């Protein structure tokens, strides 16, 4: 499994007590597969992604990324793990206004001796894969909302992540553009063999998923496989 959550519990301080955002959540995501997570607002979907992304340390349980157990790792080790193994796509693209689409991707390249020419070629290849070959030199304000979200997705794939985590990527898009973005994520998951977790509030997106799991009050119902 590329991503493995085992009995993850996460609580937040809530006045004098604690709120349980995730309650013994276990999830295994194999490479090249898309697991969709649905559930009502406040059910713990974003918390699940934050823990899987190693951005938040759970109270209990383990997160294993590409065979590496993340418990006990230092902040620096976790940052390196995220850079090398985890692609993250948030709701809002958060692109850098002054950079072209190609440059948004190039600044993500890990500093591990990859030659600039290789980095530029990879950026071009990924922009082509998301249908933006002709927009590589455009800045964010010259792109539509759907195109910006495609740049965001391409950027998350720049370091060939093992795990791709996507949080409600269509919330700012109309239905048609949203569906196209979901289809793109499914296609890239299979092409790039990422273990992908897609949080969505839109059940019409579930047909693109290999497995669907539902979160309610921090508890997961087990993935139904196949849909
Ligand atoms: P979802 O993404 O499904 O809407 P979240 O994971 O954002 O749900 O939130 C789950 C629960 O945890 C909610 O009750 C939310 O209010 C609470 N919560 C989320 N983040 C924090 C935080 N940083 N501090 C305190 N409570 C939080
Ligand atoms: Mg959320």
Provide a compact summary of the structure.
This protein is 30% helix and 29% strand. It has 6 helices and 10 strands. It has a 6-stranded mixed beta sheet with strand order 6-7-8-3-9-10, with helices on both faces.
Q: Main traits of this protein?
A:
10 strands; 4-stranded antiparallel β-sheet; 227 residues; binds magnesium ion; alpha/beta; single chain; 30% helix; binds adenosine-5'-diphosphate; Rossmann fold; 6-stranded mixed β-sheet
Largest sheet: 6 strands, mixed
**Widest sheet: strand ordering:** 6-7-8-3-9-10
Overall radius of gyration = 17 Å
Heteromolecules bound? adenosine-5'-diphosphate, magnesium ion
What is the rounded distance between the termini?
Answer: 19 Å
Looking at the structure, the CATH topology of the domain at 3-94 and 161-220 is Rossmann fold
Describe the structure.
The chain is of the alpha/beta class and 227 residues long. The protein has a domain at 3-94 and 161-220: Rossmann fold. It contains six helices and ten strands; from the N terminus they run βββαββαβαααβαβββ. It has helices at residues 45-52, 75-85, 101-106, 116-129, 145-156, 175-192, and strands spanning 3-14, 17-29, 33-38, 60-65, 68-69, 86-89, 163-167, 195-199, 211-216, 219-224. The strands form two sheets. Strands 6-7-8-3-9-10 form a six-stranded mixed sheet, sandwiched between helices. The protein has a four-stranded antiparallel sheet with strand order 2-1-4-5. Helix 4 (116-129) crosses helix 5 (145-156) and helix 5 packs parallel to helix 6 (175-192). The longest helix has 18 residues, at 175-192. The chain is globular, with a radius of gyration of 17 Å. The structure holds adenosine-5'-diphosphate (ADP) and magnesium ion.
């Amino acid at each position: 499994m590329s991503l493995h959550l085992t009995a993850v519990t996460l609580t937040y301080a809530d006045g004098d007590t604690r709120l349980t955002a995730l309650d013994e959540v276990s999830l295994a995501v194999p490479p090249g597969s898309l697991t969709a997570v649905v559930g009502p607002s406040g059910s713990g979907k974003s918390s699940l992604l934050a823990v899987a992304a190693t951005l938040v340390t759970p109270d209990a349980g383990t997160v294993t990324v590409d065979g590496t157990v993340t418990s006990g790792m230092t902040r620096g080790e976790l940052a390196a793990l995220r850079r090398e193994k985890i692609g993250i796509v948030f709701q809002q693209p958060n692109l850098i206004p002054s950079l072209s689409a190609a440059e948004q991707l190039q600044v993500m390249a890990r500093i591990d001796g990859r030659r600039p020419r290789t980095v530029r070629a990879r950026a071009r290849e990924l922009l082509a894969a998301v249908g933006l070959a002709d927009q590589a030199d455009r800045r964010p304000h010259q792109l539509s909302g759907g195109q910006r979200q495609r740049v965001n997705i391409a950027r998350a794939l720049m370091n060939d992540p093992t795990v791709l985590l996507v949080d409600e990527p269509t919330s700012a898009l109309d239905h048609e553009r949203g569906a196209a973005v979901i289809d793109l994520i499914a296609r890239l998951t299979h092409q790039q063999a990422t273990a992908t977790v897609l949080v969505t509030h839109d059940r019409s997106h579930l047909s693109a998923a290999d497995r669907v799991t539902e979160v309610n009050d921090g508890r997961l119902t087990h993935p139904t496989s196949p849909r």
